[in-house]
Write a structure and sequence with these properties.
Helix content: 25-40%
Shape: globular
Number of domains: 2
CATH architecture of the largest domain: 2-Layer Sandwich
Bound molecules: adenosine-5'-triphosphate
Strand content: 25-35%
CATH topology of the largest domain: Ribosomal Protein S5, domain 2
Structural class: alpha+beta
Number of strands: 12
Length: about 325
């Protein structure tokens, strides 16, 4: 791994060659959504978990700021000033008072608008890559501060692992548990869901005569993580956004059912959906569950993944 600082350096090290950063997707093992705040955000109490589905961002020196991409969303995702990668590069340049000059290339695997925080992951990767390319020498905490202004999940994607997210998700505290690898199946949908619309749907459901019961804090989930037993963890997973995603996309019930019939420990909508994730007991079990979900033809593709993974890292 390339470090921003050498052992005897007074100055942050500047990279002249390309800087390549790999960044994971996230799922939420627990996502408790509080009431809508005056600032337009919902108060969250969430447990983030980084999984082995990665985007890769390469930064090279250039005379202007330019972005190209390949993979998921190529041809659909705008590469202009609205892209979180461009916004992240500009935010870092403004904070460090350097010109926002870089040639950036994204290789995207994380599906768009999938509830896996792909855009936030790309912003996190950009902050790290440009910091090294420009020699701006920011700490991960300083990058997380810049990232919090771009998206609630960006600070977590700089840190990775499994972590508690509070505030609107931007305040991240690592959860220290004995190292355990969890095995997942990620069922990717044909088309995405808009995160703000899913939150609005939840607000509507909460005003209805039969509001869904909100989750409490993450204590049970945290205790389950320490037990390292997939059955115990499976019973503790929860997502307040799931009823809203199911109301907007009723066919997600078929995906959850297919995972259940395939023998997954449990299944849950990831974040705002429409991706569904299933917990398996080990790698071979995850592969069997993924095969059966694929055979059921209820989603675009089911793939296996492991977690927790580190956050954005130079490769
Ligand atoms: P979250 O759960 O963080 O809200 P998501 O996983 O549901 O996110 P993303 O793929 O992160 O969805 O992106 C949501 C929207 O953000 C996209 O539909 C797109 O319009 C916009 N966007 C801007 N930049 C990017 C990027 N680099 N990658 C993906 N989406 C981006």
């Amino acid at each position: 791994m390339t470090e921003a600082w050498g052992p005897d350096d007074d100055e942050p090290r500047r990279h002249h060659g390309p800087v390549r950063v790999r960044v994971p997707a996230k799922i939420n093992l627990h996502l408790a959504v509080g009431p809508l705040r005056a600032d337009g955000f919902h108060e969250l109490n969430t447990v983030y978990h980084a999984i082995s589905l990665f985007d890769e961002l390469t930064a090279r020196s250039g005379d202007t700021l330019a972005l190209t991409m390949e993979g998921e969303g190529a041809g659909t995702l705008p590469l202009d000033e609205t892209n979180l990668i461009i916004r992240a590069a500009r935010a870092l340049a403004a904070r460090c008072r350097v010109p926002a000059h870089a040639r950036l290339h994204l290789r995207k695997t994380i599906p768009l608008a999938g509830g896996l925080a792909g855009g936030s992951a790309d912003a996190a990767a950009t902050l790290l890559a440009c910091d090294l390319l420009w020699g701006t020498g920011m700490s991960r905490e300083e990058l997380a501060e810049v990232g919090a202004g771009l998206g609630s999940d960006v600070p977590f994607l700089l840190h990775g692992g499994t972590a508690l997210g509070t505030g609107h998700g931007e305040t991240v505290s690592p959860i220290l548990a004995r190292p355990t690898t969890w095995h997942w199946v990620v069922a990717v949908a044909e088309t995405g869901l808009s995160t703000p619309e899913v939150y609005r749907q939840l607000d509507t459901l909460r005003e209805s005569p039969w509001p869904p019961k909100p989750l409490g804090d993450a204590d049970e989930l945290m205790a389950a993580l320490r037990q390292r037993d997939p059955e115990v963890l499976g019973a503790a997973l929860g997502n307040d956004l799931q009823p809203a995603a199911l109301a907007m996309r009723p066919e997600l019930a078929d995906v959850l059912k297919a995972g259940h019939q395939a023998g997954a420990v449990t299944g849950i909508v990831s974040g705002s959906g429409p991706t569904c994730v299933f917990l398996a007991t080990d790698a071979a079990h995850a592969a069997r569950v993924a095969d059966e979900i694929n055979a059921a033809g209820v989603c675009r593709e089911a793939v296996t993944a492991r977690g927790p993974m580190p956050g954005a890292r130079v490769t």
